[in-house]
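Study this one:
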Amino acid sequence: MSHQDRNDPFRPARERSGVLESDFVGESVPMILRYVDIQEAACDPGTFSSNAPFRVPVPAEDAVRSVRQLPIETDPPEHTDYRAIVQPFFNRPRTPEMAAEMEPLIADAIDSVLDSGPTEMVYGFALPLQSRALALLLRMPRESAEEWIGWGRHVFHGDDLSSEQKGNVLHAYLERELDRAEASPGDDFFGALVQAEFRGRPLRRDEMIGFANLAFAGGRDTVINLVTFSLVHFAEYPEDFERLRAGDERLVRSAIEEFVRVASPLTFIGRVCPHGTNVQGVPVAPDHRVGLCWASANRDDAVFDAADEVRIDRKPNRHLGFGWGAHTCLGAFHARLVLRTLISQLCRRVRRFEIHGSTPVWEDWPAYRRHNGYKALHMSLHGR
């Protein structure tokens, strides 16, 4: 039996009307499903706005944080100026220097579980890898990642604490690190924030926390889910792993894009319609929300041949797994570097992947049910 449910729950509605209405904690949100419609909406902030604190994620996050996440919860041109402040950090994964630093980090992570018998790979591998890679990105000491690992798969939800408690833990941490950076600014992410300016003035503390909040929340469970998706795929389709072991760097890069397309770890994102609108015949009242469903767009048969299949050599692959338009994911370069390094190091070190059991994460809402990651994944990695 497959441990990776790749069923597309959005196909019937996408083919029927292009919209799926669902209730999210008492709020009815129509999700836009078709690739072209989502692209158009993502490039129309006047109609589909991100200038909505706490309301870009669905369900809303006003109960778990008190600041606007930046730059994602703004629209151009304000978004453009905010994004430029942190873009240099998120461009770092494109440099040879950071790529060279990522290799031993991921090699050590693989070696820690290699030939050690059944290992729980979410908390025992993917979460530590994600946290330590983030420390590298943000120029933070590696020991900082050990604290972040304790927050679990998501900084706001799940594990042993309530959402509100977890939000408070993150907020207190960010306040502490910004206090440290203000006392002695360095070249890490917090040092950059306390020295940054927005349109000629210093950033306010709430803006600094807004940037940092997104940096720690935005690429956490999504990267973890991409890592575990890759491991399970190699276990279930060893022929793909053998092709990658041949050492074709272009095929590795192609496989990464395909894994992002099929996994689509961020199912959808919210937009607020300030003046109201109509999406494929569904009226949206002023100040109500719609969802841009990336996971549906990435399975749209009008764009992707055999969209439910994983084809590691798929070309072209114009997926929307990192969003579209001005709000294309800030962390896309980082996620690609993590996956590229992971696959390359697995090819050097691993001979075979063996799954012993898994506990999937289900997004379970009235209108759809979707497998998106794992609470637990028990595997053995056998060395070459």
